Sequence to fold (186 residues):
Amino acid sequence: MSLFSAVRETFVGIKSLFTGMRITLGEAVKPNITVQYPHETLKMADRFRGHIKLVLDPETGKSRCTACNLCVRACPSGCIEVEGMKREGEKKKSVTEYNLDFTTCSLCGSCIEACPSDAIEFSKDYNKVSLNRADFDHMDLVKKLEAEAKVWAETHPSTSAAPAEANPVAPTAPEPKPAAEAPKSS
Ligand code: SF4
Ligand code: SF4
Fold:
């Protein structure tokens, strides 16, 4: 090997070393992007499709579903069952049961497109785990909505003063009465 080649290879080696160091140090000072799952979870993209869920109307804290069964008819997999009833004084039916067989759902979205009330949507639930098959082939969406409504009622005390609001789809729930400590108007 000539002296010239040896010097050239030395410079190439040093340059390569500094390039590697620059990249390593650059990455070392970047903010940490590791998500400490399951203590932390990622916010799913808007287009993410989890199982379908009943939408909680942010105005009323109740479901918008009128048990019209259009989603049932639109579902190519026959995996939705809906029951509803008309409460006294209401013009439309309210959903009382909404069961999904998630084991046969293809997440096609036909049910969501067919719904005239925007009462269902894809959830962002991506880490569903259970040892119980019924948690998947008989998902009780009304029950899930009730849990959501409970949280909603806690964060909207002025509009959800009545305890009955915690169970927005209960068929026999009496009309909510204003609570004793309704918010004072200024
Ligand atoms: S997403 Fe498709 S397969 Fe799943 S329940 Fe809706 S219509 Fe049925
Ligand atoms: S979710 Fe929509 S389409 Fe399905 S029963 Fe309720 S209102 Fe009708």
Remarks:
- The pocket of iron/sulfur cluster (ligand 2) is lined by residues 65-71, 82, 95, 114-115, 117, 119-120 (CB under 6 Å).
- Confidence is low (pLDDT under 50) at residues 161-186.
- The helical segments are 3-28, 70-74, 110-114, 134-137, 141-155.
